[in-house]
Amino acid sequence: MDRLRGEFIDIIEWTDDSRDTMVWRFPRYENEIKMGAKLIVRESQVAVFVNMGRIADVFAPGMHELQTGNLPILSTLQGWKYGFHSPFKAEVYFVTTRQFTDMKWGTQNPVTVRDPEFGMVRLRAFGGYAARVTDPAKLLNELAGTDPQFRTEEVEEYLRQLIVGKLGTLLGSSGIPMLDLAARQSELGDRLAKMLSDELMASHGIAIPKFIIENISLPPEVEQAIDARSRMGIIGNLDNYARMQAADAVRDAANNPGGAGEGVGLGLGMAAGQQMAQAFTPQQPQQPQQPQQPQQAYAPAAPAPGGAAVPPPLPGQQQYQWHVAVDGQQQGPYDHATFSGHIRSGAVRSGMLAWREGMESWQPVEQIPELAPLFRATPPPLPPQA
Question: Where are the alpha helices (DSSP H) in 146-237?
Answer without folding.
Answer: 153-174, 185-203, 220-235
